[in-house]
Amino acid sequence: MELFLQQVFNGIMFGSTYAIVALGLTLVMGILNIPNFAHGHLYMLGGYITYFFMSNIGIGYWGALLLSVIVLGLIGAVMERIVYRPLSDGPHINAFIAAIGALLFLESLALVVWGPQGLRIANPYPQIFNVMGITVGLQRLIVIVGAAALIVLLHLFLKKTLMGTTIEAVAQNREGAMLNGINVNRVSAITFFISSATAAVAASFLSPIFMLSPAMGAILGMKAFIIVILGGMGSIPGAILGGYILGLIEALGGGYISAEYKDVFAFGALIVILSIKPTGIFGKREG
Amino acid sequence: MLSVKYLTKRFSGLTAVQDLSFEVAQGQILAIIGPNGAGKSTAFNLITGTLPPTSGKVFIDDQDITAMKPYRIVTKGVARTFQTTSLFDQLRVIDNLMIAYKWRTRLGFWNTLLHTPKWKAFQTEAFLRAMEVLEFLGLADKAEHFIPTLSQEEQKRLAIGIAIVSKPRLLLLDEPTGGLIHEETDRITQLIHRIRDEHGITVIIIEHKMQMIMGMADRIVVLNFGKKIAEGTPEEIKTNPAVIEAYLGGEANA
Amino acid sequence: MFTKPIHTKILYLVLLVAALLLPFYVPDRYLFQIVIMSILFAIATASMNLIIGYTGQASLAHGAFFGIGAYGVAIMTKAGLSFWLALPLSAVITAFAGLLIGALSLRTRGHYFAIVTLCFGVILWIVAGNWIELTGGHNGIFGIARPSPISIPFLGQIEFNSQTAQFYLALAFLLLTLFALNRIVYSILGLTFMAVRNNEPLADAVGINTFATKLLSFVVSNFIAGLAGGIYASIIGAVGPSAASHMVTFNFLIYLILGGIATLPGAVIGAFAIPIIMEFMQFLGDYRMLIFGLLLVVVIIYFPQGFVGGLRVLNQKIAVWRQSKSTEAGHVKR
Asked: Is there a domain that residue B248 lies in?
């Protein structure tokens, strides 16, 4: 029973991360219909930026996290402007290639600046509790709580603020929004900012627990993609639900069935679901 | 030869077509008219398999073709054009026609790879048939041109050509003269007459231009809000009070 | 109907002669190896062109099929089978895998298809890295035998231990592949693929079974990829999961796009030019991928047609210009 609860706890923790990362990605894909395949690498960079602020500049954890959010957000907005916007009218495969270029660039940037070895951010909350027989690391708990808080914040932003509702409007109907005088380009830039910012939060939460490495974003990026597709591009509930479900499936599957093949569950699930419903679970948009 | 029985299409909340029934005899020209949004194009989509009907049936010569996939319905001799001119615009004029003829041949992977004599024969057959249709359309000199160089009317002619190249028995034309001026409309009208007169192809045409319809159709079916409100010869339709009311003097005088 | 201008034919002839004579003027073993690898990548990239470029379906599993071919030959030759039997068998297995995966995934479109194929690819990669009994896990399989010698009556034996022999073997398969693809593309069958890419609803409406067409293109592409992978395994001598990874797919994709998508020469040019450019960029050390990533973004934004594609578009624009000049009705365009 303890094993089960432990796996559930871990699953929720990973799921929280997946949910935030997928959420950022689904916003971007819903608005721009462009696969930001470099999202996982932005996540990776976010972790390194937090490390930079903590280790090189000496700022505390939460301050570094905040700065990282801002910096990565700006990087995301820049990327939207110089990489994706010129390609928004062309065939999607071109945007995909550009994303590959961007991700190669980001990965080698991390490699050049910080080197290939894994780095660790000092864990600001290393305390461990024992609750009902399961080991609960405080940092892990913070991941779960922090992610939930972020999701609520984003929800409020999207539903209650002018910019937020504008973003949703553009995500639903880009042409209609343009006809109504909405500056779609500005909305795209801001969406990318938010998307990257949330990735930075996720990375900063997770990096004290797991090591940073230049390749850490690749598989996560693909999983985020899967969650977004399964949940329906542009569907925030889909991304959040998908994230938590994936985290749980992986933790339980990894714990009970096989640890090495844990990643297969994500990819396998996608294939099964898309075979049955080719536009995803909540799928409303044609790819 | 075409028999449509109680064809109904419901989308969530909206009934686009309701209990539509009509028949077309071999060699006739039938026109389907009605105000915008009456369900005319939807009816075409239901007949050609592009949309599966919620209920009802479609028969070609007593063969039930209801909800067959479009590419299979084509092999039963049904061909169509689209309201917005649909062409293979990355390819040349003659390519468009050869592609549309392909299903009549048995060109496949192996005979293509091995360039068998059969392959040569089929390629030649397709090419000759394509040129024949281009002659008929008056586009023979444009065979190797790419689509963007064609005028709007030429593109619409080509779209009709794509539909007839595989020698269909029934041709469904969705607003074949949309957006064309008077002389161009006349040219297309003549083309359609020739298709029926010289090749015996049955034609169903959706159109808004009343003068053209009155002069061309043997029978007319009038739709409004997805329902058939009248059917008959042009004379009967012209004086039908329900029809006049549906149009409210708008396009009825066009 | 599909004839090429004479100057293109002469160019190809010159290139062919240059290729045949290459072992005599290639400067060193290292460059020779790069050339041989490029030939194999060109085979794989050209076949990727069939499904992505000509049929318009963004399959991102190509690297995985290359890997299946490689592992197939590796496993079978280690089990004692002759290379010459293992290679076609391996390619057939790859094609069959393509059939299964295609049947499952070709109902999806656009992004979804790309992601599903990517997932299949990643799953295969993970399995390759973990199924130790079959694939040797992360270490892979090594000590794969070179292709066994062929006896030719009166001339003796052809051995495949030398780079020169391997080069001609790879070149032979490349020429065969290009020949086959040329036949497929320049025919009504090829037009059918392009029809599906250009306007799938219209293709459906003119009697083309679009699902079967896509599946055919997919399976043929994967067969050829498997072939390339199989030869790769035997020449390199070792395969690991990296031979089936998504990075392989991305590499092929880059070669294809930069060389010129939907052009037969484009795949070949890309597969040669990019690795050679990468080699020359070695002096940049770790900054190599940094610059490459940047270059990739710049090129795709400003030269999306790739090299050959750009040339073709130029030609087409000239042809269109000429044609509209010769049409009287050309003035009345709406």
From this structure: yes
One domain for residues B177 and B66: yes
Partners of A82 on chain C (C-beta within 8 Å) are 297
Q: How far apart are CA A108 and CA A48, in angstroms?
A: 13
- Nearest C-alpha in B relative to C329: B151
CA distance A196 to chain C (A): 19
Domain housing A64:
16-218
Q: Is residue A261 part of a domain?
A: no
**Could you tell me which of A270, A18, A23 has the C-alpha nearest to residue C121?**
A270
Residue where a domain stops, chosen among B123, B139, B165: B165
Chain C and chain B touch, per 3+ beta carbon pairs within 8 A: yes
How far is C103 from C85, CA to CA, in rounded Å? 27
A157 falls within a domain: yes
Mean per-residue pLDDT of chain B: 88
DSSP C72-139: HHHHHHHTT--HHHHHHHHHHHHHHHHHHHHHHHTTS-HHHHHHHHHHHHHHHHHHHHH-HHHH-GGG
| In-domain check, residue B82 | no
Chain C CB contacts of A101 below 8 Å: 292-297, 300
Best B47, B86, B111, B113 member to test C by mutation, with max C CBs in 10 Å, is B113
pLDDT bracket for residue C330 (50, 70, 90) = very low
- What pTM was computed for the model? 0.87
| Per-residue model confidence as pLDDT tens digits over C134-189 | 888 888 888 888 888 877 777 777 888 888 889 999 999 999 999 999 999 999 99
User: Any bridge partners for residue C158, and if so which?
Assistant: C150
User: Do B183 and B212 share a domain, yes or no?
Assistant: yes
Pair (B48, B19) in one structural domain:
yes
| Four-way CATH pick for C29-282: 2.60.40, 2.40.10, 1.10.167, 1.10.3470 | 1.10.3470
CB contact under 8 Å between C58 and A233, yes or no, is: no
pLDDT tens track for C205-258: 999 999 999 999 999 999 999 999 999 999 998 898 888 888 899 899 889 988
Q: Are A and C close enough to touch, i.e. 3+ CB pairs under 8 angstroms?
A: yes
Alpha-carbon gap: A162 to the closest alpha carbon of chain C (Å): 31
Residue A10 lies in a domain: no
What are C's interface residues with B at a Cβ cutoff of 8 A? 1, 180, 183-184, 187-192, 194-195, 197-199, 201-210, 216, 220, 316, 319-320, 323-324, 327, 329-330, 332-334
Residue B123 to chain C, least CA–CA distance (Å): 7
Can you give the residue range of the structural domain that contains B233? 1-77+168-254
Domain termination residue (choose one: B165, B186, B208): B165
Query: Are residues B180 and B56 part of one domain?
Result: yes
Q: Subunits with at least 3 CB pairs below 8 A relative to chain A?
A: C
Phi, psi angles (nearest 5°) of residue B18: -130, 120
Q: Does A147 map to a domain?
A: yes
Q: Please give the ipTM for the structure prediction.
A: 0.90
| Cβ pair B152:C316 closer than 8 A | no
Chains sharing 3 or more CB pairs under 8 A with chain C: A, B
Do residue C184 and residue B103 have CB atoms under 8 angstroms apart? no
The minimal CB distance from A97 to the residues C113, C130, C300 is found for C300
Shared-domain flag, residues B127 and B249:
no
Q: Assess if residue B137 is contained within a domain.
A: yes
Q: What is the Cα–Cα distance from C131 to C55, expressed in whole angstroms?
A: 34
Q: Which residues pair with B9 in a beta bridge?
A: B17
Half-sphere exposure in the Cβ direction for B215 (13 Å, CA): 12
In chain C, which residue's Cα lies nearest the Cα of A89? C301
From chain B, the residues in CB contact with C215 under 8 A are none
| Same-domain check for residues B181 and B243 | yes
DSSP assignment of B113-143 equals HHT-HHHHHHHHHHHHHHHHHHHHHT-GGGT
Q: How confident is the model at residue A285 (pLDDT cuts 50, 70, 90)?
A: very low
CB pairs under 8 A between A and C: 134
Q: What is the pLDDT of residue B250?
A: 47
Residue B214 lies in a domain: yes
Q: What is the CATH number of the domain that holds B245?
A: 3.40.50.300
